[in-house]
Design brief:
With 252 residues, the protein is an alpha+beta fold. It is built from nine helices and ten strands. Strands 3, 4, 5, 6, 7, 8, 9 and 10 form an eight-stranded antiparallel sheet that branches. Bound molecules: zinc ion (ZN) (2 copies).
């Protein structure tokens, strides 16, 4: 009878050639898959070493491949190419609508997060979300992802949006939050990096231009910003006929 052979481990291959865990090989594999985010997630679940590689390299390449101009701009404001909150959090922000739930300043039915195949981030739109004193900050923000209201008694749809402020640690927005003595929220965390968040609604730092840009009802707008500068927010959208002509391009 033949003896059962021991299954060959990945490490065995390193004696006769490059290991399958060689970073260069993995980089080629993921590049050929166009930095597929589902593949990166699966890879990161395999072991600690691959999880670290995904955080340090794979998510970075994913972000650079999807929005090179935006990423280079974000990087230009950081020291040593280190992105606040990490590349994995930024990768998630790029391709994941975070869903929402009722907060201190916004009532809604629960909406689950979901993958978004393509998203446009705009710093022109971003200016509308900042109070005039903070408009020199650069905020990249998405258009609202529209979710139909499941409640038959309500006729408002919910718009969810997300974004990031460049160099948040030295931004006017952060300085203003601290000067105002704004408190971090007790029951909310950033859906992208799990850091604590401030409510800009609570800090009264939401300008009327944000409501116009989103075409949403007055007093139905809430957004949060985390310690790493990630933004996520929600609003009740006006019916299309009421919102026509309210959105205007203000230029970057
Ligand atoms: Zn969505
Ligand atoms: Zn965050």
């Amino acid at each position: 009878m033949l003896a059962r052979q021991r299954p060959r481990l990945l490490e065995d291959y390193s004696e006769n050639g490059p290991s399958l865990l060689d970073e260069r090989i993995l980089t080629f594999v993921f590049k050929s898959a166009n930095w597929n985010p589902f593949l990166i997630c699966q890879c990161a679940c395999v072991c600690k070493r691959l999880s670290e590689l995904a955080k340090r390299l794979l998510w970075k390449e994913f972000c650079l491949s999807r929005a090179p101009k935006m990423m280079n701009d974000l990087l230009s404001g950081e020291i040593n190419g280190i992105i606040n909150g990490g590349w994995n959090a930024l990768g998630k922000l790029m391709c994941f609508c975070a869903g929402c739930h009722t907060t201190r300043n916004f009532q809604c039915y629960p909406i689950n997060g979901h993958f978004v195949r393509k998203t446009r981030f705009s710093c022109t739109s971003g200016r509308s979300f900042l109070v005039p004193q903070c408009r020199k900050d650069t905020l990249y923000v998405t258009d609202p992802c529209e979710h139909l209201d499941n409640d038959e008694d309500e006729d408002e749809d919910v718009g969810l949006f997300r974004g990031i402020i460049k160099s948040f640690a030295t931004s006017r927005t952060r300085r203003m939050l601290l000067e105002k003595g704004a408190r971090l929220e007790q029951n909310e965390v950033c859906p992208f990096c799990r850091a604590e968040v401030w409510s800009l609604t609570q800090a009264q730092m939401i300008p009327p231009s944000a409501q116009r840009r989103l075409a949403c009802y007055e007093d139905s707008l809430e957004y949060f910003i985390c310690r790493n500068g990630h933004l996520h927010g929600m609003c009740s959208l006006l019916p299309i006929s009421d919102s026509e002509g309210l959105s205007e391009d203000e230029g970057c």
